[in-house]
Design brief:
The chain is mainly α and 364 residues long. The chain has 13 helices and no strands.
């Protein structure tokens, strides 16, 4: 996978496991856990289904936003790459920009076009966050979404963060759809930094393509944005329901609505975490916000199940995608070498060779 090292993956997974181990050390009680081990297999199956649906709706969105430029399997690989890269890059950066490079290479698209597809998908996510924040703040007046144990300082810190995040979403949306030249100016300024100047020409070329794509997006009918947002909504609801079904499967007395709302708060809070995929911080937020809603002995086991289905599995899928891309690159290079040898042989014998067209792109 471009731009990702084994070291970053090991660091991300290792940090997550370390924090999970610490939480387990202080909360796990084998005797109490064994008494609660009579889980509901139907609810656990529903938890697995939410992961499948999350991938399905994310794939559908990428394929839809691309206006068919991405095949279904290509969009699926793009979504899995995005999930993987988001788990091994800092949450403040996200995996979207790198995933655009993967999609461009995998589907042989211009990088600017792949970037604009990812930016629009990211914009839909940001809009969903912006709508979630006021809902959380309003419902928080009636429900204990932020635990009282955090105190006044903790509650106000979350509130200030949520409001600041809303401002950022508005700026991001404006720059993406209305004034893409703002993004070009930001990229130009960044690329003037020593060490990045060699990327300036290429980056500005990508921004030119992005401006063209932004113009196309502005001409879309409202129905285009509505469907894109509904697909985004479906994907995020399944992310939140994963936690609900996991905990519910082992704790029937769960306050399902409160767990759902606190999961939204955990997700929003993880966006600014500086660690890869929020590793370590997400585990801490889970114990802090969701832990009080279940018996203490279940905190570590449910946290492990959540990270297995929502995090570690995507690391494994990302490894598969890396192998798949390496195989495609090697096949392409062998094809190019064969064509070069054919040209060389033709020149040596003075022959004119009519070359068969290259095989069409497939998703195999």
């Amino acid at each position: 996978m471009p731009g990702i090292s084994v070291r970053s993956i090991v660091w991300s997974v290792g940090l997550s496991l370390i924090v999970l181990g610490v939480i387990g050390y202080f909360t796990f009680e084998p005797d109490s856990f064994r008494q609660m081990l009579d889980f509901d297999p139907g609810l656990l199956a529903a938890a697995v289904l939410t992961v499948v649906l999350r991938i399905f709706f994310g794939t559908w969105r990428l394929q839809y936003v691309s206006h068919g430029r991405l095949t279904w399997l290509g969009a699926l690989r793009g979504q899995l790459a995005w999930d993987f890269l988001s788990n091994v890059t800092p949450s403040t950066i996200g995996g979207g920009p790198i995933a655009a490079g993967y999609i461009a290479r995998d589907q042989q698209l211009p990088l600017g076009e792949a970037t604009s597809i990812m930016l629009f998908s990211m914009l839909m996510d940001q809009i969903w966050f912006a709508l979630s924040i006021p809902a959380i703040l309003i419902l928080g007046l009636h429900l204990e979404i932020i635990p009282d144990s955090l105190g006044t300082v903790g509650s106000w810190s979350f509130t200030l963060y949520f409001l600041s995040f809303m401002v950022w979403v508005l700026v991001f949306g404006y720059a993406t759809l209305v004034r893409p030249r703002l993004l070009e100016k930001m990229v130009d300024r960044v690329c003037r930094v020593r060490g990045l100047r060699r990327f300036r020409e290429r980056a500005l070329g990508v921004m030119d393509q992005l401006q063209h794509r932004a113009h196309i997006l502005r001409t879309q009918q409202p129905a285009f944005y509505v469907k894109g947002f509904l697909l985004t909504l479906a994907a995020w609801l399944n992310r939140y329901l994963l936690v609900v079904f996991i905990v519910w499967s082992v704790y029937p007395g769960l306050d399902k609505l409160l767990v759902f709302l606190r999961t939204v708060a955990v997700t929003l809070g993880s966006v600014v975490l500086p660690t890869p995929g929020g590793a370590g911080g997400l585990e801490g937020l889970y114990a802090l916000l969701l832990g009080p809603l279940m018996p203490e002995a279940l905190v570590a086991p449910t946290l492990l199940a959540w990270r297995l289905l929502g995090y570690y599995i995507f690391i494994a899928l990302g490894a598969y995608l890396s192998v798949h891309q390496v195989r495609k690159t090697m096949q392409r290079k062998r094809h190019e070498r064969a064509l070069a040898l054919l040209d060389e042989d033709a020149q040596h014998h003075g022959e004119i060779v009519v070359r068969a067209p290259e095989p069409e792109r497939t998703d195999a």
